[in-house]
Design the sequence.
């Protein structure tokens, strides 16, 4: 008997339901791997445009490291990308130097606020180069104002011009008198002369370059060496003085002993003479 294969035609209404369900399932199906947002550790920009700018960036960053070397909850970085908003890797900037209180020291490829207890850098420094534009720097101020920076300092080493902003009422206000200004957060002092900008630590010592710090270290070592030599020379002088006094005392003792012996010798001679005289002269006189 021949078996006939008959292909049943699916009603259009059922077919529509199947297609609809398939489309929904496809739309709602989650991919095996969710695409992760990448936060680059580089922005393709140079850290500095010239040696003067670079030296100032390093000088400020390293002296701030010195200032908070013993405080493990102060993170300091230079030219590190800061991402203030999770999920958006386009909102970012790399301050020339930044200080974050309440975050531990340690290596970071970038600073992501949501991974740092949502703590924004409190103090930020920017060192200008000839390539920086007014528009660019104005944009930076707005960025720092929006994302919580409390103090912002901008220095132009070519013009020896320092500007500062301090947070008040959720905005950054310009510091009208920057000469002799003391940072409320860092407690460092800024002094501007016609030759340069000078920044002083709370103890009054100036921010120094690596070379100056090394020279100071060498001077300190030399001073300690000379101090040690001086102490050794003083000790040697005291030793020689003690030896001299000892020899003097010994000489006096020998002189006294000599005098004693001389006195004994004189007395012995006197007694001998007296005896002789008595035997001769005094005895004859008594007989006479």
Sequence:
């Amino acid at each position: 008997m021949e078996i006939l294969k008959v292909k049943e035609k699916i009603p259009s209404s059922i077919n529509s339901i199947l297609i609809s369900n398939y489309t929904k399932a496809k739309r709602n199906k989650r991919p095996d791997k969710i695409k992760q947002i990448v936060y680059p550790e580089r922005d393709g920009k140079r850290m500095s445009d010239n040696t003067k700018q670079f030296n100032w960036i390093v000088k400020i960053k390293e002296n701030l490291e010195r200032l908070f070397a013993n405080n493990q909850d102060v993170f300091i970085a230079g030219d590190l990308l800061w991402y203030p908003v999770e999920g958006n890797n386009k909102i970012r900037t790399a301050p020339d130097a930044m200080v974050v209180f309440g975050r531990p020291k340690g290596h970071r490829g970038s600073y992501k606020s949501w991974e740092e207890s949502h703590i924004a850098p409190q103090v930020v420094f920017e060192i200008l180069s000839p390539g920086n534009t007014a528009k660019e720097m104005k944009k930076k101020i707005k960025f720092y104002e929006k994302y919580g920076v409390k103090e912002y300092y901008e220095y132009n080493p070519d013009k020896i011009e320092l500007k500062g902003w301090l947070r008040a009422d959720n905005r950054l206000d310009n510091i009208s008198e920057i000469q002799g200004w003391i940072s409320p957060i860092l407690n460092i002092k800024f002094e501007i002369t016609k030759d340069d900008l000078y920044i002083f630590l709370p103890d009054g010592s100036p921010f120094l370059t690596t070379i100056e710090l090394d020279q100071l270290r060498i001077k300190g070592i030399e001073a300690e060496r000379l101090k040690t030599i001086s102490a050794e020379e003083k000790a040697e002088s005291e030793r020689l003085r003690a030896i001299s006094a000892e020899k003097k005392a010994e000489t006096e003792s020998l002189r006294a002993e000599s005098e004693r012996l001389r006195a004994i010798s004189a007395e012995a001679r006197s007694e001998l003479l007296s005896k002789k005289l008595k035997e001769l002269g005094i005895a004859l006189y008594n007989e006479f």
Observations:
- Residues 236 and 242 are 10 Å apart (CA to CA).
